Amino acid sequence: MNIKEASEKTGVSSAAIRYYEKESLIPPIDRTAVGNRDIDDRIIRRITFVTQMRAAGMSIENLRRYIELFDAQEDNTKEQKALLQEQLGVMEEKHGDLQAAIDHLNYKLNHFYDHMESTEQELRELERQHADKVTQKPTEDGDGLTNY
Amino acid sequence: MNIKEASEKTGVSSAAIRYYEKESLIPPIDRTAVGNRDIDDRIIRRITFVTQMRAAGMSIENLRRYIELFDAQEDNTKEQKALLQEQLGVMEEKHGDLQAAIDHLNYKLNHFYDHMESTEQELRELERQHADKVTQKPTEDGDGLTNY
DNA sequence: TTAAACCTTCATGTGTACTTCAAGGCAAGG
DNA sequence: CCTTGCCTTGAAGTACACATGAAGGTTTAA
Predict the structure, then answer these.
(1) How far is CA B19 from each of CA A142, B26, B27, B144, rounded to the nearest angstrom?
(2) Would the keyword Ribonucleoprotein turn up in this protein's UniProt record (chains A, B) (predicted)?
(3) For residue B110, what are the domain limits?
């Protein structure tokens, strides 16, 4: 498929796909007779992988290092492990921050709700939607942003 | 406390604190007689809140809108709700992506481990550390990055 | 055969979120 | 008195991750 189809399939812009190839986040892409990129499913999967890792907050630079290590044929087991471990740490931390912020907002939303008329059900739905994910509420609402 | 102490306490640079104040992410900070910022715990909490939301992926712009709404005295209940709802959506999505990426890396790490000598215990520890957080593994390891 | 709709490379522009620099003020220690 | 070390504002610079534009090539459809 051409780059536009790949773009539509992945949700990544054509320019970004070219950029990823140049930065070696995805392998060199085969070209057609006239020099156009011919993108197969392997490349699509790689693009999707990049998208996931980017969404998870991994920088282009780290992602490139990570991929280089995995693509290399030498025995760089140790470095691979170290890099995985490092990235897992970063992601767990982000995950924690994110969860804290979500909990915080949910708490605020619930508190907020307590002081409102109960005619509007949207908030209840929202609350129900997220209820299973809220594990703990902040011990105090200390950011000074609660007017209610 | 002065801005340097606040910086050390929050892990946010002095320049960033000034920037946050200018962008109204934190309230106007009191000044001493000679014009230096005198930062109290309320400001510290605000800075921490900003840090958390930033870490969770909220943009400066959205964060400012959010804070403006909460600081305003008018009855903007509806907008506050909408903004909270919007941000919760964004964060839940990010959370999902992040979890997917973490699961992916954990799966890779486990798979990886299966093919290694069991003399090195670090990976077991890492595995143990994160085991409770891994809820599901990717159905296939389709990014082409598994050499092992 | 001419326009539309793709594509290419290379260069430059853009938005975000700060960081760094320049120029200067205040307070304490030697 | 002068250096050190903190602070101030305002302007300009930087890094990242692309987006956009220029100049041109190919293929398809009218």
Answers:
(1) 22, 9, 12, 43
(2) no
(3) 74-148
- Rounded distance between C-alpha atoms, residue A103 and residue A7, angstroms: 35
Residue in A70, A101, A130 nearest the CB of B56: A101
pLDDT tens digit sequence for A97-120 = 666 666 666 666 555 444 443 333
Q: Which helix (H) or strand (E) holds A75?
A: none
Report whether pLDDT(A124) > 80. Answer: no
What Å value separates CA A104 and C1' D4?
44
Last residue of a domain, one of B48, B72, B96: B72
As a rounded value in angstroms, the CA-to-C1' distance for B59 and D23 is 37
Instruction: Tell me: do B65 and B93 sit in the same domain.
Output: no
If asked whether residues A47 and A95 sit together in one domain, one would say no
Average pLDDT over residues A122-138: 40
Q: How many domains does chain B divide into?
A: 2
Restricting to A residues 44-103, those with a Cβ less than 8 Å away from any Cβ of B are 45-46, 48-49, 52-53, 55-58, 67, 70-71, 73, 77, 80-81, 84-85, 87-88, 91-92, 94-95, 97-102
Assign B60 a pLDDT band (cuts: 50, 70, 90): very high
- Tell me if A120 sits within 8 A of A90, measured CB to CB: no
B119 and B63 assigned to the same domain:
no
